[in-house]
Amino acid sequence: MAEQPASSKKVFLTGASGFVGGYVFRELIARGYHPVCLLRSGDRFRRAATNVDPAMYSVIEGTLFQPAALARATRDAMAAIHLVGIIVERRGLGRGQSFRRVHVEGTRQVVDAARAAGVPRFIHMSALGSRPDAPATYHRTKYEAEQIVRASGMAWTIFRPSIIHGPDGEFMELVKSFVASPFPPVIPYFGNGEHKLQPVSVRDVATCFVSALSNEATIGKVFEMGGPRAYTWKELYETCRRLIPGSCRIKPKVGVPVPVAKVIGRIGDLNDLLLGTRLGVPFNLDQVRMSQEDSTCDPRPVEQTFGIRLRDFEEELAAYANLIR
Hints:
two-stranded parallel ribbon; alpha/beta; globular; 13 strands; 16% strand; Rossmann fold; seven-stranded parallel β-sheet
């Protein structure tokens, strides 16, 4: 029989098969923790993690809404890291992937299971801009999830990152499609393109999540995360066009008027609800709303608390640009 991991090193992890989750998963193993991953498909995850010794982690098959699976995954864990979230709702054809169900109800299920299992520590993924009066449902439901974590009675830490970037993330794949693909024929942004975002490296996010496990100074704290530099959408596209191989230098940047973008986003949302597909609409109403406010923060509290220098977006992009799908 294989040796069972010591409970002092077991960390319950949601979202291990996702973009950020994959980095957190590997960071946990590198630091000597034993991730216990709640996954829909354990076999698919194991195939993707062929370079990781299976003895170094455990897989529990299930979802956030299966109490028995959650109970197994949280048993004897010294901490929980909750990463699961969605940026686009998938509500049609009975899928039920709404912001409220995933962010609020899903977090409540995870918190309840962790608390019932006596898990003392909880690290939670939120988002920069989360607040009760936010225009976007995404941000409002992220804030509601934060309140569930705060009231859990566990020693919690919450992270609110800006846009998270890396070579295998959806954001950089989307940007590459805009600057280096023939379709669409323009590089689109919403409104005047002057609102700012502060891309933060997925490697820094993973480092901070795992470091928080052993850093008591992070307990009861909310950390906003952004890279060392903020970019307008126009600046971001120009930076990516300069650094991503094969980019079209003459492809024009075009601002889509916000009222028009909102109508298009609503149509995509309605298509999804009624037909189960967005019929080619590449964004939703919430994304339009979020694009019309800055997603920036002071990076110094994270750097000081975790003793790191947050990675520069352009340096990171130059290193991985050839790897973007």
